[in-house]
Amino acid sequence: MPEALLSDAVRDLVHDGDTVALEGFTHLIPHAAGHELIRHRKRELTLVRMTPDVIHDQLIGAGCARKLIFSWGGNPGVGSLHRLRDAVEHAWPRPLELEEHSHAGMATAYAAGAAHLPFGVLRGYRGGDLSAHTRVATIACPFTGEELAAVPAHRPDVGIVHAQRADRKGNVQLWGIVGVQKEAVLASARTIVTVEEIVDELEPRAGAIVLPCWVIDAVCLAPRGAHPSYAHGYYDRDNDFYRAWDAISRDRDRFLAWMQRHVFETTDVAEYHKSLGETVLA
Amino acid sequence: MMAVAASRRLADGVVCFVGIGLPSLAANLARRTHAPDCVLVYESGTIGSKPEELPLSIGDGELAETADAVVSVPEMFAYWLQGGRIDVGFLSAAQIDARGNLNSTVIGPYDKPLVRLPGGGGAPEIATSVRDVFVMLRHSQRAFVSALDFITSVGENVRVVVTDLAILEPVDGELTLVALHPGATVEEARAATGWELRVADDLSETEPPTTAELTVLRTLRTKGAAA
Fold it and tell me: The pTM is what?
């Protein structure tokens, strides 16, 4: 029975210095869990995410991260992540080490981790400057001799994703754009899944992924826990919030004030939403 | 004009990997005008999306709802992109050089950047896995440079660069001015290019947007966008 309070799960399953993958490709981003990492003042984390966006900007600006392993770090459709930039360009609030990949490389590394392989293989990283600055190697195909790229597998200590729903046993169901969440969960040593609702029975859905309860350590109820991201079938993406984040995050003091009011002075996702005011929500 | 010029290059039935913003506008314009069977693939995993409104992000719900298929991100990059199923890939960047190489990683040195950009995302493998790369980028000295600060993706498959002034195509491997948009001049394009821009002998002028194109553009509004 993996059902737990999110606060307890984060306190017990995530340790300072851990490698933590919070995943979600625009959809189902585990914001509530990210806020809980910040409230628990987790430190020295290596964060893994293909597309770090607003929640990672907050984690980095709050000083939780020592290192970021990623392939695209921006505010989709809006622009840069100002806290990420400030950390990389000015070491504020602390230096941030980067390990940068391509999307294809990150996806391959997660799939290799889920398959319990030491590395993944792809036809990638060819010609550009990235391979000189990251962990990638060239290997020869043993059958044809073709040169291919090898990326070390992602094996996070903790994988965290958000999903639409779970049943009482803790089996989890997610659908819509499913991103790399299945691989992130299966690659990780410990896993936390936040869900919109817990139901008696999971009705089959076309295109849905089911993660059985025995690959999950904690299932935590967190309604609207993806906001400002969205949960397909539950609520829409809060595009206004993503646009507003640009101005909030540009200035250190304004960022800190926002974090104080909406994360540190709230205890859970319900209070977070209350602090934002119902009008912000879709 | 950029979206119109790029959309006209998309043949009916092509499968194209679409980024957010102008590429999405161009591909959706093509699908609603001359190329109804153009297949839009977004890297979030949606294949055959037919959005009514333009999405703000590549993972908006409408892209999944209107798609023929939704696949995981590892599958998208391994089976569909690396698998050679995509004809056209759109890219943009902060900088481009005369060979069509692109930089979306850093301005300044990698380890001590003046500006840390979002990074390559899908670009490195899009650039080498699709048949034709279309680049859409506003024309300026800052963007069209003689030497990139960082090569994020290589230019070998770049077939066309559409700017707000003109269209460039590679001639003997070097991006060359082949068409000007209405009102633009060779001098303007040269002044906005950081290398000695060559001009094709048969330089042409882009046809202005048609009424049909303008009508579709007006209806394709970004979801919730004020701008």
Answer: 0.95
